[in-house]
Amino acid sequence: MDTIRAGHQEAGELTAADGLIQLSRLVQELHARTSERHDLTPVQAKLLCVLVLGPRGMAELAQGFGVERAALTGLVDRAERRGLVKRSPVPGDRRARHVMLTDAGRQAATAFHADATVELEHLLDPLAPRDRERFCNAMDEIINAGGHP
Amino acid sequence: MDTIRAGHQEAGELTAADGLIQLSRLVQELHARTSERHDLTPVQAKLLCVLVLGPRGMAELAQGFGVERAALTGLVDRAERRGLVKRSPVPGDRRARHVMLTDAGRQAATAFHADATVELEHLLDPLAPRDRERFCNAMDEIINAGGHP
DNA sequence: TATTGTTATACTCTATAACTATA
DNA sequence: TATAGTTATAGAGTATAACAATA
């Protein structure tokens, strides 16, 4: 085992790039496993979490997800078929539709989010309180820079 | 803009969970964009990076990727069709095949890896040298714990 | 004309199940 | 029997292009 871990050297000797890749892998795997436990695909879980904040238009969702509008149609179709979301007309613009959670969707979203949050926090358990705080501050700096130089 | 950022509050006020999710999103987006620049799918780029370390069996790769053997067959089929990898017999076991890089595949792998590494390192540019070192150490701790309590 | 959303089509990635060939 | 790999089939997620309805 451990045959496949690109860039792996000794424990505690990782490149910054490798560290970021492997940390991201941990987060994605955790997200995938948690979604599966809640009988959701990872993308559906993401959709539900966004819709908890309120109804959204298709174009708005597509832009936020970084996918084409056509891809979002399929995504919402499948979520709607599973009874998680519904489409409703937008007063004042007869072209547009709002996507919103059904009751079942809201329940699923809440349960998933709570579970995922707990699991993610556990990732930081190995850090001492002080280091954990520093780590979160560093993440904030990186995220707020947002890859923009 | 910024309409869709679950858990977003004020700049510099993110939950640990939200921070991990958004950092992971940055890394994944960067990986996707870099793959695209090199005319690779993200999964193909990952495959090439693993194969730089040497030939691997199908079962070995499937296990390392956390996917079924059948899924890997398709993955290698497509990479082979694009001339990136090739299959070869394994001396001593006539059931097995080794997957290895072609010359084009090795070139693509090297170019991609160099590019991705640079981009990933840039993510940490906002951190002061000392903070950057602490951040990398923290990532190491998290990864070496590996989500295992 | 521009925007919102959909349909049609195709490709990648993945899983499950059934199969072949070898160990 | 067990293992290595493949084929067949199905579904999710995505893109592009063409379309309808409305603004």
Give the helix/strand layout.
The structure is a homodimer of 149-residue chains.
Chain A: H1 16-37, H2 42-51, E1 56-57, H3 58-65, H4 69-81, E2 85-90, E3 93-101, H5 103-123, H6 129-145
Antiparallel strand pairs in A: 1-3, 2-3
Chain B binds a DNA duplex (23 and 23 nucleotides) through α4 and β3.
Describe this structure in words.
The structure is a homodimer of 149-residue chains. Chain A is mainly alpha-helical and 149 residues long. Helix content of chain A is 61%, strand content 11%. The first copy, chain A, is built from 6 helices and 3 strands; from the N terminus they run H-H-E-H-H-E-E-H-H. Chain A has helices at residues 16-37, 42-51, 58-65, 69-81, 103-123, 129-145, and strands spanning 56-57, 85-90, 93-101. Chain A has a 3-stranded antiparallel beta sheet. In chain A, a hairpin with a 2-residue loop joins strand 2 and strand 3 (93-101). The longest helix of chain A has 22 residues, at 16-37. Chain A is globular, with a radius of gyration of 19 Å. The termini of chain A are far apart. The model of chain A is unreliable at 1-10 (pLDDT under 50). The interface between A and B is large, with 60 and 60 residues. Chain B binds a DNA duplex (23 and 23 nucleotides) through residues 41, 43-44, 57-59, 67-75, 78, 90, 93-97.
